[in-house]
Amino acid sequence: MYRWVRSRHQMGLRGRSFIEAPWAGGAVLLVCVIAAMLLANLPWTSAYYHQLLETDLSLLVHSPSGSIDWAFPRGMTVEKFINDLLMVIFFFAVGLEIKREIVCGQLSSVRRAILPVLAAAGGMLAPALVYLVFNQGTLAANGWGIPTATDIAFAIGILSMLGDRVPASLKIFLTALAIADDLGAILVIALFYGGQIQMVCLLAALVIMLAVYFMNQMGEKRMFFYLVPAIAIWTLFYYSGVHSTLSGVAMAMLIPMKPRYSKEYFTHKMRRLKAAMLAVGDAEGDFPNEDHRFYLRQMRALASDSVGMSYRLENALSPYVTFLVMPIFALANAGVEITSVEYLNIFHISPEAGSVGMGVFFGLLIGKPLGIFLASWCAVKSGLAEMPQQATWRMLLAVACLGGIGFTMSLFVDSLAFTDADLIDRGKIAILMGSMAAAVVGSVFILFLSKKTQRP
Question: Following DSSP, what letter does each residue of 288-338 receive, concatenated?
C-alpha cells in the first residue's frame, strides 16, 4: 500500500513538472499535429475524422410540419464549435496576457515596449509583402495575413530547450514580441477577415461592453457579474459578422486587475482568522477538524480575492489553454488529406490561383525573421530603442528565425482567409512546413553561434 501511494505521489510530481515545463505545450501541439495528419490520411480513420468535424451541434426547433423554424447557434458544427467557441478561451487568455504586459509588463512603458513592438510590426509587414509577391492579383491574394503571426508556445518551447545558449534578455524580447504580434494578429482578423457586418448585433454588444466597463469602474469584483455578459457578447459577436473569438479579447480588456481587498485589509483579516483558528481546541493529531477547515476555507477565499481577477483567470486558464484548447484546435485544423504527392509541392503556382504554398513558406522562413531583424536594427541604430543586454546582432537574427514559427494563429487566419477547400489545405501544409523549417533553421543557427562563442 505504501509503495502504491508513493508511486502515485511521484507520478503526480512528474506530471506537474511536465505541465510547468516551458517546452511542454509545444511538444503536445507537435504530437497533436502528427495525430491529426494520421487521422486525416489513414484509410480506416479518414472518413470518420472528417465526418466528426462536420457533425451538426446546433439546437434545432422543429415546427409541427417537420421544417426547422429555429436553430441556435446557426450552422454550428464540431469544427465551428472548436474554431468559434472553444478558441474564444484561447483569445481570452491572450487578451489577459496582452493586458498584463501593457499595464505592468514588458510593454508597460514606451522605452521597454518600443523594440518588441517595432520588431513585431516589421515581422508582420515583411512576410505579408513576401506573400503578395507570389500571389498579388490572384485568387490567393487574400491570404496575406497567414504568415504574419508567431506561435508563442512553439517559439518559447524551443528557446527553453536550448537553455542558456540564448541570453535571457533575448528570451524576454521574443516573448514580448510574440505578445505584441498576437495583438497585431487580432487587429488583422478584426479588420480584414470578418464577414458582412450586422450593425444591430454589433451595437448591442458594444452597449453591453460599455455597461461592463462602468461596472468595473464602480468596483465590482465578483466573477459571476462578468461571466453572464461574456456569454451575451459572444452570441452577439457570432451573429454580427465580426469573428466571435474577438469577443474573448474584448472581455479580457474589461476584466478588473485591481484586487477586491487591499493589503491592509488582507493582513488585518488574515491575522484575525489565524487567531480564531488557533483558539479552536483539538485532540492530538486531529488537524484539520471541521472548525479548522471552516477557517482555512475563509483564508483561501480571502487570499484569492486579494489577487486581481485578471491574474487569477490567467493563471487558472493557462494549463487548460496550453494542454486542452490548443491541442484540440490542432487536432481539428492540422488534419490535411493529402490526395497526391503533388499536393505537398509548395512551389506549385497557378496564374489564376497564385501560390499559397510559396507565399506562406517563404513568408514564414524568410519574411518573418528579416522583418524582425531589420525593424530591430533600424530602431536601435536610430536611438529609438536599446539593444537587449548581452545580445549580438547574429544571435538576435537567430532568435528572429524562431519568430517564423506561425502555427496556431496562422492556421486560424488560413481558415478565415479562404472559402476554397483546396486553398485552405495548401495553406495548412505550407504553414506546417514553413514553421518546421523556421524552427530547424533558428535552432541550428543558435547552436552554431553558441558553440562558436564557447570555442575561444
Answer: S-HHHHHHHHHHHHHHHHTS-HHHHHHHHHHHHIIIIIHHHHHHHHS----
Q: pTM for the full model?
A: 0.82
CB crowding 423-452: b at 16 or more within 10 Å, else e: bbbbbbbbbbbbbbbbbebbbebbeebbee
CB 416 within 8 A of CB 189: yes
CA distance 408 to 385: 29
Measured CA to CA in angstroms, residue 394 lies from 140, 273, 346, 415 at distances of 34, 57, 29, 35
Predicted local distance difference test score (pLDDT) of residue 63: 62
**Distance in angstroms (rounded) separating the CA atoms of residues 291 and 298:** 11
pLDDT at residue 2 in the model: 46
How many angstroms separate the CA atoms of 197 and 203, rounded? 11
Predicted confidence (pLDDT) per residue in 56-87, tens digit = 887 776 666 655 556 667 778 899 899 888 99
Is pLDDT of 292 > 60? yes
CB 321 within 8 A of CB 245: no
| 3-class secondary structure, 61 | strand
Q: Calculate ∠ Cα 16-169-107, nearest 5°.
A: 85
Looking at beta carbons, which pairs linking 379-388 to residues 24 or more positions away fall under 8 Å? 379/114, 379/115, 379/118, 379/119, 380/115, 384/114, 384/118, 385/111, 385/114, 385/115, 385/118, 386/111, 386/115, 388/115, 388/167, 388/169, 388/170, 388/172, 388/173
CA distances from 356 to 151, 311, 348, 353 (A): 19, 40, 9, 8
Q: Indicate the average pLDDT of the chain.
A: 85
pLDDT digits (tens, 9 = 90+) for 162-195: 877 888 888 889 888 988 888 888 888 888 887 6
Distance CA 197, CA 199 (A): 6
Count Cα neighbours of 219 within 13 Å in the Cβ-side half-sphere. 3
Burial class (CB in 10 A: 0-12, 13-18, 19+), 270: middle
Give, as one character, the DSSP assignment of residue 354: B
Check whether 437 has a pLDDT greater than 90: yes
Contact 425, 337 (CB under 8 A): yes
Tell me the C-alpha distance between 72 and 57, whole Å.
9
Rounded to whole angstroms, how far apart are CA atoms 300 and 307?
11
Instruction: Write down all domains in the chain, each with its CATH number in brackets.
Output: 108-187+308-454 (1.20.1530.10), 263-305 (no CATH)
From residue 108, alpha-carbon distances to 57, 181, 190, 223, 410 in Å are 42, 16, 24, 26, 27
